[in-house]
Amino acid sequence: MANDQEERTEEATPRRKEKERDRGNISKSQDYTSSLVLTSGVALLYVMGDDMLEKLKTMLFNALSDLNPVNISDNNFISIISPYFNTLCSILLLFFAFLAICSIIILRLQTGALFAKEALKPKFDKLSPSKAFKNLIDKINIFKPRQMVELVKSIVKGFIVVMVGIKIISQHKNELFGLIGADPSTGFAVMGAIIFKLVFSICILLVIIGFLDKKYQDWEYNKSIKMTKQEVKDERKNIDGDPMVKGKIRSFQIKILQQKMMSNVKEADVVVVNPTHYAVALKYRPEEYPAPIVVAKGVDFIAFKIREIAKNNNVPIVENKPLARSLYKLVEINGIIPQELYIAVAEILQYVYSMKKR
């Protein structure tokens, strides 16, 4: 017999995916998230860098110009240092606040609105030393398929980063050699441009690698939550209900409807029969309905019961094979007869009313 993994050939149903989300089991790529956060940080530095550098230059200039070690003591150290500390915090806090917002947005876009109720439940079995040791062994076992994939990814990423760095540096080696003995401001400008190009190129490559990893994680996740044919059947049964139970409920409902229908035969004006296979009970109340309505109908045994109730309650029974068949097929219970049957039904009702007058 095939094992469970081999038998899981069916795609996960929406209900199964929802259950997995409740457990906190979703498809996510740490590489993709971290690459996007890193790229966002570089973009923020590019946008905010000039202002940050200007503030740092002003702070350093004031510190080197105004601070005199002779005037610093234990009593006034904090008051002298605090303005510079506040300036530094204002620079860094603004940058990290924007970076935190970008990180939250990136994570939300990847995972969606996730509130894993099952993940919040305490799992005391994880506190067991044997369980913790087993989890540690699983994580450091590089021969497991998942760990092998992560190891290969790390090696590939490291190799790509090194190769990109070597290529960009080799492209600008003449500029770098030309900085020997150059003016410091020129050197910083050239080095900054090369470093930015290097970092930007690495970010683009990491985003591409992260995107590919996200696709791989989606594929692996969908594979891990596949279901067996029996699981799909069981889930459908739980949603739709057990067919046997549904059958019993439907039988009970039909029985109730039939009992109600049979009680309406007593109020009928006439029963049209075929003569044994079909029976349709009609009622006409001009003040309530524009035309006669069918209050009961049936074939074979139900038709027999309708005729029996009609006889016991002195409801006239009229044989008309074509009309009985037409009424049974065209009109639902409590439905008004169609216009094309008006004349035929009117003739029967006229006959019944004349019989009652006699």
Overview in brief:
By secondary structure, the protein is mainly alpha-helical. The protein is 69% helix and 6% strand. The protein contains 14 helices and four strands.
Protein traits:
358 residues, mainly alpha, name from scop, 2 domains, four-stranded mixed beta sheet, 14 helices, elongated, disordered N terminus
Q: Can you list the strand order of the major beta sheet?
A: 3-2-1-4
Structural class: mainly alpha
Estimate the mean pLDDT confidence. Answer: 77
SSE topology string: HHHHHHHHHHHEEEHEHH
Q: Shape from CA axes?
A: elongated
What low-confidence regions span 5 or more consecutive residues with pLDDT below 50?
A: 1-5
Quickly count the domains. Answer: 2
Number of alpha- plus pi-helical segments: 14
Q: How far from one another are the termini?
A: 82 Å
Helix content: 55-70%
Largest sheet: 4 strands, mixed
- How many strands? 4
Relative strand content? 5-15%
Radius of gyration: 42 Å
What does this structure look like?
- There is one protein chain.
- This protein has 358 residues and is mainly alpha-helical.
- The chain has 2 domains: 8-236, no CATH class; 261-357, secretion proteins EscU (name from scop), CATH 3.40.1690.
- 69% of the residues lie in helices and 6% in strands.
- The chain has helices spanning 4-7, 14-22, 30-66, 77-111, 117-120, 129-140, 145-171, 173-178, 184-224, 229-240, 243-265, 301-312, 321-330, 342-357, and strands at 270-273, 278-283, 293-299, 317-319.
- The two termini are 82 Å apart.
